[in-house]
Structure formats: C-alpha cells, structure tokens
Amino acid sequence: MRYVIIGGSAAAISAIEAIRSIDRESQIELFSDEATPLFSRVLLPYYIAEELSKPLLNFRSSDFFEQNKITSHLGVRIKEISSESNTVTAENGEAYPFDKLLLATGGNPIIPPIQGIQKEGISTLKTMADAEKIYQWKGKRAVVIGAGSVGVESCISLRKRGMEVTLLEQLGHVLPTVFDEEAASMIQKRIEDLGIKTVTGEKAIQFSGNGHVESVVTESREIKCEMVVLAVGVKPAIELAKKVGIEIGSLEGIKVNAEMMTNVQDIYSAGDVAETFDITRESSWINAIWPCAVEQGRVAGLNMAGKKTLYIGSFRRNSIGNFIGVPAISMGLTRAETCSTCEAGESFQEIKRRTKDAYKKLIIKKGRLAGVILVGQTQKAGLYQILLKKQIDVSEYIPVLMSRNLNFMDILPLIRRNADRFTETEYKEIMDTGL
Amino acid sequence: MKILVVDKNKCTGCHQCELWCGTEIASVSKELYQAIREEPHPIPRVYVEGKDFALQCRHCEEAPCIEACPNGTMRRDPETGLVYVNEPTCIACWMCVMVCPFGIINPSASMKVAIKCDRCRHMGYPICAEVCPTQAIKLEERKDYRTKAF
Questions:
Q1: How do residues B88-114 score in pLDDT, each as one tens digit?
Q2: DSSP H or E run through B108
C-alpha cells in the first residue's frame, strides 16, 4: 500500500498515527507547503507574544517523521492530482503514485476586498512565515481586523509586546461565532482591561498610506497604525480537489462521507478543508477547529488503512484559556436563532444563569444539547461535551446540568441508559471506574 | 494495563484520598498541617464525587484530552500507557478540560497548568489506594465490560 498525505498539520498527523496503528510498514509520503514541520498553527499568537519559542510550538516531537517512517516533502507544493493514474505531481514536475490519498490541505486566510489591502505592513496570520513577519514588524500601533479566535489572540499578543492595539469587528460583538452577546461582553471587558481598544459594528473600508499602511479607515473614523493583522476567517483550500473533479459542498469545502472519503474512490479528506455533517446543526458544515481536524484525520487514516470506521459528525468547540485570561468554553450553537434547521413547533429552549463573574447557557433542541456556553466555572465542561457529542436526551436532567455541583456521578445514569451510543472502548473506559 | 477501580460499597466518602493526594502529590511542604495552609492551595487529583465515589483520571485508551491538546503537552507514557500532563509546556488553553468526559482535569488558574492524576507514575503505588482506609480504591487490571449484559 502507498499512502500520500497532502498537508502537514493536525488532520494529516492524526491520520498518519491512525494508519501506523494498523500498518507499520507501508510507504507514507507527506507533502506540506510549510517548510517548518509539526508546528501548531493555533499557537502562532503565542510565538508573536514571545510566550513560546519555536521548538515549543511543535505538537509532536521533531523525530516524528523518522519514528513513523514517513518520507516528508516539506515546502513542496502539489500542483496536480490525477485520479486516473493515481498520482500526485509536485511543482517541480515529479509524480508520486498513491493507493490512498488524503487531502488535508486546510484553509486559506480570507483577504477581504478592501481598498489599499496590498500595502506593506498588512498581513494575515496563518503560516510560520506570517508569524515571523509580524514578529519582526517595527511600529507602535496595530489594528487587528476581525475578532474571531485568531484576531483576539493576535491583538493580545501584540499588546503583550507593548503595542497600542485596536480590535475592529464588523459584527456586533467580539468572538461572534464562538459566544453569544452576554458571554462575549464578559470577554470583551477583559480584552479592554488589557488596554486594547475594541470597535465593534464597524467595517474597514480603506487602508491609507504611501506604500506602507498608515491608517485604517472605517465609515466613522480613521485609526492610525503602522501594522494591520487581517483575521477575518479562512476558507477551505479546495483548488487541487476542484481540478480533479472532487465534489465540493455548498459551503465550498470538500464533501466527504462518514468514512471521510470524497466522491472519488481512494481519495479522502479531513480537517479545515472538509465539509462534514454537523450534529448540532443537523446539516453540512465546516468546523475548522483543532479537535475536529484530529478526529477526522483519525477516522480517515483508519479507513485508508482498511479498518472501516464511521465519523460520528463534527461540532464546534472553543476554549478561551489563560492567554486571554477569562476561562470560557463554548460548544455547538451559540444562540437559538442559529438553529435554522429547527422546524416550527419543535421544542427549543435556552436556559441561562448569570452571576457576577460566571455565566452558563444551555441550548436544548428536541431534548438534546445543541449548544453550551460556560464562562468562569469550566472544569466540568467535558460532561456537557460528551452528552452533546452523543446527542443524549437530557430533558429530565436540566436542573442537574444547571447545578453548580454537577459531577460525573450525576450524568452516569444517562450514559448507562445510552450505552449503545458509545464505542466499545469508550464505554469500557466509563465502566472501568468501578461503577 | 492497570487502572484504579473504586468499590462503591466500600467508599465511605471520607475524603482521605483527596487529603493525601493533595499533600503528597500537590503540596510543596508534603506535611499535612502545612499543606492545608499553603497558597496557592494544593489541588488533589482525585475527587470524591457525590457523597461517596472517588474518581480520578481513567487514562482512556482513546483519550480525547490527548487529541484536543494543541501542543503535545497531554501525552501517553509509551511504556505504561498512563496519560500525563507535561507541565512545563502546558499553555493553559483548557482544550483538555473541554473534552474530558469525566470532568477530572482541573484548569488551575493559580498554577496556569492543567492538573490531573498521573496515577502516581513515578511512585511505587498510587497514594489514594494506599491511604484508603476501607481499601475501596484498588489497582486492578483493565477489564472488558462490554461482554457483560447491561
């Protein structure tokens, strides 16, 4: 068997580990356009903040390729895939045959069509090269456009380096896809306490400056700056897939089945590029987050190595940790309205509790958790996560789930009752407690 | 591999396991009378859940915490199979906390690391099992519960 993996981040590495858990010997070739291997993209803001040096950005040890007998082609871009000859062709023209191919090409940062965007001192933050460039920038004032996870962490990293930072978000509040307004306001307060200026509900319409950026212009103000980080999101890198006729979903991601295979036999896809079934939305979605990439990579890898495994489906999960300084975790849907698939008349509840520094919200759909937001007290977040992931009926357990003392013992009866929703290993693990 | 198993009938909810885990593993002083007054307060790796059930990390075979960790801080000891936090590299992002189905990873705000049981991997015998007065906590070989009817 010859495996070819395109991509070198979470989904790719996870797939390799899965393949190697079954097949120790077959040839695996990995192609990544990043010259630096095995670093964690989500940690780039930590690098800019000088909190982590380069070696500490790695999520696997530097001998990973050697240990797993991987032939790695780093800094090598694949320009073409042929599904007839089952080969991939690198930019230098060399062709490599495969029996099973994984497309873990991730996402490309979105470059919004704003006048003056090509000016110097404006960058996205996706690659190691981007991080190094931003790290080297000289100047005192920065604007970060987009208050998603990358945007918020970027502005904190620049602030930690002593810069004057403005965070600009066109939607109504920070982290608009991660938190609801209430939770976001608690986090926004923390961001502002760090000395970052936040501007929400305003759109950048122009970058001014002569060659180098000098300011960001919105409808109502001009913000002087020497640097701009663009963090308005990523879109799946589907160029290769499109050319070979792989089916693209309505959200512009690569469509995969439950085995993570595309519509082309022997070509699989996983991670930020893949469009999968979202169990909270009950529809196709792109959940471009680390845990989903790892899970999908594993399922793809197992199937590629011949062990039939089905993906349970994806759902969004985000944790705001110490870097921002407010413990907050959010999963699934953030607000009832986003549940567009919910038919009229279906029971649909939002249950909230807010105290001074803590906030908890559950979104219940058809008796099952469709979204959870926790700010402050987060240690038991994993209990909600497993109930949501397994779509267990919790309608009789709402007071328990809203309780301050929720613990594993409380949800055990629910898990037992729904044993059939767990894999053998998962269930064994739970029963091993001695209960 | 061997894991810690609790006999619910024998657990009296006395919290001795928490007390001694906190002292022996988490405290700086290692003396109970001092540990109790230490700041930051030592965090035990075992929790008496409800009234009477001691729970600590299960060292899952398919460990969601390892999968969620973005920089390989949560790892498995290849020799023993035990899952542990490599504390010096922990960035306190709490991704592991978010996915632990048992809720036994403590996001320590004061220590800025994820804290959980490593089954006393550097010691001869887990402290919680050693101090349990009724021997409710025992070290046993992992069983296959799926064969049982439930």
A1: 999 999 999 999 999 999 999 888 999
A2: strand B106-108
Contact list, A379 vs chain B (CB under 8 Å): 97, 103, 105-107
**Is 70 exceeded by the pLDDT of residue A338?**
no
pLDDT of residue B116: 97
pLDDT band at A344 (very low <50, low <70, confident <90, very high): low
Contacts of B89 in chain A (CB under 8 A): 56
Closest partner residue to A40 (CB to CB) among B64, B70, B144 is B70
Sequence length of chain B is 150
Among B3, B94, B128, B142, the strongest candidate for a mutation testing the A interface, having the largest count of A CBs within 10 A, is: B94
By the CB < 8 Å criterion, does A434 face chain B?
Answer: yes
ipTM of this complex prediction, to 2 decimal places: 0.93
pLDDT at site A10: 97
Structure tokens at A174: 């920070």
Dump the DSSP string for A38-105.
SB-GGGHHHHHTTSS-GGGGBSS-TTHHHHTTEEEEET--EEEEETTTTEEEETTS-EEE-SEEEE--
Q: Which pLDDT score is estimated for A339?
A: 54
Q: How many CB atoms are closer than 10 A to CB A386?
A: 24
Share of chain A above pLDDT 70, in %: 97
pLDDT, position B110? 84
Domains of chain B with CATH codes: 1-56+119-140 (3.30.70), 61-116 (3.30.70.20)
Which residue do the tokens 């010859």 mark? Answer: A2
% residues pLDDT > 90 (chain A): 91
Angle value at C-alpha A349, between A396 and A201, nearest 5 degrees: 145
Cα nearest neighbour of B47 on chain A: A407
Task: Say yes or no for a CB contact (<8 Å) between A426 and B144.
Answer: no
- A69, two tokens: 């007998």
Look-up: residue for tokens 């918020």? A152
**Domains of chain A in sequence order:** 2-109+235-304 (3.50.50.60), 122-232 (3.50.50.60), 327-431 (3.30.390)
